[in-house]
Design goal:
Elements: E1 2-7, H1 10-20, E2 27-32, E3 43-45, H2 53-62, E4 67-70, H3 73-77, H4 80-86, E5 91-92, H5 96-103, H6 105-114, E6 122-125, H7 128-136, E7 142-146, E8 155-158, H8 161-173, E9 184-188, E10 193-202, E11 205-214, E12 217-219, E13 223-226, E14 231-234, H9 241-261, E15 267-276, E16 282-288, H10 296-302, H11 307-316, E17 330-337, E18 362-366, E19 369-372, E20 375-378, E21 382-390, H12 393-404, H13 420-431
Parallel strand pairs: 1-2, 1-4, 2-3, 4-5
Antiparallel strand pairs: 6-9, 7-8, 7-9, 10-11, 10-15, 11-14, 12-13, 14-17, 15-16, 17-21, 18-21, 19-20
């Protein structure tokens, strides 16, 4: 079978790499891909942008694509699945109506309230003055989110009133996120530890996949501006058996049942971003309607099952009878970024060290890279993700950092504390 992967990031590189391992798959096209995807066996890049739905459909038809996997959120929200299904093509992801679960924070919060799924209390605003009055009369810290898609950067945790007011003015008045910030959602701040949980869904059937934990902020200690993600690990030790059971019972099943009850067939990956409080209670922070980035990279490094077969099972009704096998070890991914990210940064710097890595059970997934003659050069903010396995998060992180340390370009940087919560938990357990 032939597979089309839509996107150009580390998530898409990891997906292409994993699909290439399947004996069911003969060829993988990545649109548009990067300098890493093109190096994988069975994979070729196609110069079609991820948001060009017409060109993507034409490509899939011309190449007789058997299955399309959507990496980024924008094509889902714009209805790529609807377009492909209308043409009789299999496209793995929710239709536009269901993808609003990620595409609109207001839609998501209303959905959660309607189906009694635990989440933070909130209120949405389009008027700046009303939003300012609200934050001035509510306790800090407070969370301010652009309603629409903002590449993972449309969330501000305001510790002070001045920060809250600045965020609101930036979104509602200055329109720094364009139309995505024409409405904002203001939420209570939830205390605890974040984790993510992902599942494969076919309308009413569910296969749970793996837990993970992302690090959203740029700097160590979870400081600095929000990014698309600076690193992740899987599994997340905070996700105990009791919490897992609660998340399935109170979040995943009600979400899938709620989508079905609301008349929105949901097929694809369902990603729940969670806050787990000190008492072990989980609440939904956000939904993604696809694999996250950089969580995908360590998750797929652990996946031993055939990903193509798993995705196909969501089309043929065999989802519930499909077993998922995992490497019992932990995986950690370290994002290596361009200097200046998530704000302005330069491109075109030659990357060195990629050919010298000899760390066992490790991979480097490309994101913002391009080929320039014989060199691999930077072509984005998040450039690479160094992933490694280990017996626990502590060992996996040490291995991943050993990989990252061999890679360099002008201005490159990465967080030095990815996995610190899990590592502390592991150390505490060893000392007891």
């Amino acid at each position: 079978m032939k597979i089309l992967v839509i996107g150009s990031g580390g998530r898409e590189h990891a997906l292409a790499w994993k699909f290439a391992q399947s004996p069911l798959v003969s060829e993988i096209l990545v649109a548009p891909g990067n300098a890493g995807t093109i190096q994988e066996k069975k994979v070729c890049n196609v110069p079609v942008k991820a948001d060009d739905l017409d060109a993507l459909l034409t490509l899939a038809q011309a190449e007789n694509i058997d299955l399309t996997i959507v990496g980024p959120e924008q094509p889902l929200v714009e209805g790529v699945v609807d377009r492909f299904e209308a043409a009789g093509l299999k496209c793995f992801g929710p239709r536009a109506a269901a993808a609003k679960l990620e595409g609109s924070k207001t839609f998501s919060k209303e959905f959660l309230a309607r189906h009694n799924i635990p989440t933070a209390s909130y209120k949405d605003f389009e008027d700046l003055n009303e939003a300012l009055d609200y934050v001035r009369s509510n306790p800090l810290p407070i969370v301010i989110k652009a309603d629409g898609l903002a590449a993972g950067k449309g969330v501000v945790i305001a510790e002070t009133l001045a920060e809250a007011e600045e965020a609101l003015r930036n979104m509602l008045h200055e329109k720094i996120f364009g139309q995505a910030g024409s409405k904002v959602v203001i939420e209570e701040f939830l205390y605890g530890e974040e984790a993510s949980f992902i599942a494969i869904v076919d309308d009413t059937r569910i296969i749970p996949l793996a837990s993970s934990q992302d690090h959203k902020t740029r700097d160590e200690g979870d400081q600095g501006p929000n990014t698309g993600g600076m690193g992740a690990y899987s599994p997340a030790p905070v996700m105990t058996k009791n919490i897992y059971d609660q998340v399935m019972r109170e979040v995943i099943f009600p979400t899938v049942e709620g989508m079905h009850a609301d008349g929105m067939n949901y097929r694809g990956f369902l990603y729940a971003g969670l806050m787990i409080d000190p008492k072990g209670n989980a609440k939904v922070l956000e939904f993604n309607c696809r694999f996250g980035d950089p969580e995908t990279q360590p998750i797929l490094a652990r996946l031993q099952s055939d990903l193509a077969s798993l995705c196909l099972s969501a089309f043929d009704g065999s989802l519930e009878s499909t077993e998922v096998k995992w490497d019992p070890r932990a995986a950690v991914g370290i994002v290596i970024a361009s200097g200046g990210y998530p704000e302005s940064y330069s491109k075109g710097h030659v990357i060195t060290g990629l050919d010298d890595i000899q760390i066992e059970d490790s991979r480097v997934f490309h994101s913002g890279t391009a080929l320039e003659k014989n060199d691999i050069v930077t072509n984005g903010g998040r450039v690479l993700c160094a992933v490694a396995l280990g017996k626990n998060v502590t060992e996996a992180a040490a291995n991943a950092y050993a990989v990252a340390e061999q890679i360099d370009w002008k201005g490159s940087f990465y967080r030095r504390d990815i996995g610190y919560r899990a590592i502390k938990r592991e150390r505490d357990e060893q000392s007891n």
